[in-house]
Amino acid sequence: MQDPIGPPRSLLLLGGTSELGLATARRMIGRRTRTVWLAGRAGPALDAAAAELRALGATTHTVDFDALDPASHAEVLGKVFAEGPVDLVLLSFGLAGDQLNDEADPAAAARVAATNYTGAVSAGLVCGMGLQAQGHGALVVLSSVAGERVRRGDFIFGSSKAGLDAFAQGLGDALYGTGVRVLVVRPGVVRSRRPDQAVPEEYATGVLGLDGPFATTPEAVAEAVERGLRRGSETVWVPATLRPVMAGLRHLPRPLFRRLPV
To answer: By the 8 A CB rule, do 80 and 11 touch?
Structure first.
């Protein structure tokens, strides 16, 4: 546990059209957040997200950000930190991919990995340095339960999230004592209301799927983020009951794990 952090006054959302990220931003605006930066690919979706948050009372800016262009991250994100203190960075971008199609299309699989891991490593380090330079703030990284033990049905996505999760934990250790916190959030499968962010078909069934008891919602994730910051947590699970479940699954022998409906 570390020192608690209250609702931020300023927030940088990496993945400016992410349903999880926007749900968290809405919750924070309802507390005391007044400045929001939405970083994502320029277009109608990003503009609509900015307009929605602006209508809630936040001063909202958009930033043209591409996770697949790490060479641009220092300049693009550096401009945000140059505008003033950033209390909270929420790293919420990623691709679920399509496991069956991506297995037959290595380039598509590499795009999932590059977005979810390589892009996140670059952006996470840039933001970590920005937060450290100002001497305070928090970086919240949206990981996934899929990275805890990679399953046959989603091993491309799961492996990328496993890498992201390990990176975020290491970054948290590197920043420990600097005034900067890193919170890793591990949601189960999220029930999306938006067709453009619906999970692939392979997530629909099974104990850990959309029809299982451990599925969650964007609003539940947002609540968990706020609670985790308030409690000084370094890792939170959504729902919390996933923690003991995954602790058991992580240590099952592989022959048995392959037979489970997960």
So the answer is: no
